[in-house]
Amino acid sequence: MKEKDSQVLRVLARQYKNVAAASTEIINLQSIMNLPKGTEHFLTDIHGEYEQFNHVLKNGSGSVRKKIDEEFGNSISSRDKKSLATLIYYPAEKLELVEKEEDNLEDWYKIALHRLVQVIKRVSSKYTRSKVRRALPKDFAYVIEELITEKAEILDKEAYYNEIIRTIIRIGRAPQFIIALSQLIQRLVIDHLHIVGDIYDRGPGPHVIMDTLCAYHSVDVQWGNHDVAWMGAASGHMACIASVIRIAARYGNLDALEDGYGINLLPLATFAMEAYEGVDCSAFAIRTNQNRGGKALDLDIKMHKALAILQFKLEGQLIMRHPEFHMEDRVLLNRIDYGTGTICMVDPATGEPRDYVMRDMDFPTIDPANPLALTEEEEKVMKGLQQAFMKCEKLQRHVRFLYAKGGLYKIYNGNLLYHGCMPMNEDGSFAQVEIGGKQYGGKALYDILEHHARRGYYAKDEAERLYGQDMMWYIWSGKGSPVFGKDKMATFERYFIEEKETHAEKKNSYYRLLEKEETVDRILEEFGLCGRESHIVNGHVPVEQIHGESPIKCGGRLLIIDGGFSKAYQAKTGIAGYTLVCNSWGMRLVAHEPFESSRAAIVNESDLFSHSIDVESYPRRKLVADTDVGEEIRERIYYLEELLEAYRDGTIMEEM
User: Fold this and answer.
1) Distance CA 634, CA 499 (A)
2) Of 161, 207, 317, 635, which one's alpha carbon is 20 to 30 angstroms from that of 388?
3) Which of 609, 478, 483 is nearest to 541 (CA)?
4) Which is higher by pLDDT, 101 or 332?
5) DSSP output for 499-520
6) In this predicted structure, what is the pLDDT of residue 335?
7) Spatial contact of 34 and 183, defined as CB atoms under 8 Å apart
8) CA-CA distance, 89 to 607, in Å (whole number)?
9) Helix axes 105-123, 63-72, angle to 10 degrees
10) 3-state secondary structure (DSSP) of residue 192
């Protein structure tokens, strides 16, 4: 026996002390292998839209309604199915309405409880009793287990179960029990959640989404470039801090920072009010703010411009200290001719230098002789913000969760998940990107960037930490970043240059090659995957369904599931996002309608998904044995059987 195997067996022997214990565990594990695989739920590009996110999470992208249809068929009306689904999504809120409107509340409770128990029986059927037991709410665990477990020894089962429900109603616990049952259904319908990047920016509630994810039973996250910018900001990186606050200002969501995370923006507001008093800020309108006006809006606009200038200064400094980024063309403040009011940039049409007229030249904090230098007041403001981000307990907790549960990519059950793209050349080869004086491409590029992103937050050595933070900024917007995937981020151009052609951000060749099988095969093979059942799932680039674009690429082997969760993109995409569901029968893509509000969903009993598309149907139902968990169980069974043999031949002594 190998030394490593011997050590594994001795560890197992401390848990399974004899033949009987090891045999029982082998039988248990083998039975799990033959259960249907759990349902996976994929979401991406949530961008702070917490109400829509919560609704999609509650309904499992139609999975709850599907289980209701399977259980009840035509035995209850479509209206009753909608009502039951709404109760499962929003039990407390729905109960509040019912208790005001229902004449015979006891009968309503009885019907609702019976139906919820039926749904739970169906959704729990693919799990072992022990797994269901672990999911049961503590206060009602025993009663729920009684209701969903078939008891062969009881002759009048219906009377037995009816009496339990009558007692729940009689002692006044029906509302609490309904809430517990509804939440359990939500928990059991989805076995595992994948967030394929971009939780942050644009929408008003990223902190609410992160609180929800932190409490979710099983989840992983593939970092999007917006997430990495927030991770960099939490680490104290000034360029990332300026970027995330500027975006919050632009979309009218500074409340997410002040109220959601408790970050004090008063020093920034005071600075902007004083430094930008009487300054032309017309290019810095707030895009989606519906609630502010007058002096408050005027202040937000001043803060918006102040942050943009801070961002361009800090990014310019960063690029200058990293010539290996090859981004000198993005150091823009020192390209301005302050005498003529123009900036010299490359004309996208000709590739030649050209002078463009600046729409705005009112820069009270820029020294034309040293345009990248922060003023004393700007330095003070940024240091204060740096401390606020680094000392924000809630933000730090959320970012540690992203590190613990996330990475730049994930291989899960034969599928490859990443947010953006695989940087490629026009010929389909992997683009090489210089990092730390070496060239990286393919999987190695992902790995080295993730390594530096982790060091940027956790490293004790100051130089290593600073380098990692600079790399986080590069992951956010660098032209070689796989989660950005474009030649530039044209923020400066959109603010200051009229000509629309300068606003264009050229996508990486990946997006022009992803319909080719050889491209998809090359990427999957790079990550150790093969076979037609493997898929690539990514987001990042909104799919414009309104113009006939499909999220299904390369015959279903690559899926881009960003369809406009963010309200800022819905006019462009024509829908309110795609999600993906993968269960034991196959994969289906779900297109969602624009979401009004959770209140409207409760009152009108309206759901969110509009239609689903079958991406793939499996030739046979997939079991746990066919999954990554199955591989782990198989290995554990192997070692347990080795332990049995060791007990039987006396190599390891049993404890009786």
Assistant:
1) 61
2) 317
3) 483
4) 332
5) -GGGG--PBPTHHHHTTSHHHH
6) 95
7) no
8) 10
9) 100
10) strand
Contact 265, 256 (CB under 8 A): no
Amino acid 531: pLDDT:
79
Asked if residue 147 lies in contact with residue 117, where contact means CB atoms within 8 angstroms, the answer is yes
Spatial CA neighbour of 412 closest among 559, 221, 613, 639: 221
The residue among 519, 517, 491 whose CA lies nearest residue 503 is 491
| Distance, CA of 23 to CA of 31 (rounded, Å) | 13
Q: Give exposure, 432-451, as e/b (b: 16+ Cβ within 10 Å).
A: bbebeeeebbbbbbbebbbe
Cα separation, 255 vs 208, in Å, equals 12
With contact defined as beta carbons under 8 Å apart, do 123 and 189 qualify? yes
User: Up-side HSE of residue 647: CA atoms within 13 Å toward CB?
Assistant: 21
User: End-to-end CA distance of the chain, in Å?
Assistant: 24
Please give the Cα distance from 389 to 230 (Å, whole number). Answer: 10
The answer for residues whose C-beta is within 8 angstroms of residue 484's C-beta and 6 or more apart is 225, 420, 475, 476, 477, 478
321-334 pLDDT per residue, tens: 999 999 999 999 99
Buried b or exposed e, range 312-337, using 16+ CB within 10 angstroms = bbbbbbbbeebeebebeebbbbebbe
Query: What digits encode the pLDDT tens for the residues 157-191?
Result: 678 888 889 999 999 999 999 999 999 999 999 99
Question: At 222, is the secondary structure helix, strand, or coil?
Answer: strand
pTM of the predicted model as reported, rounded to 2 decimal places: 0.93
Average pLDDT over residues 650-654: 89
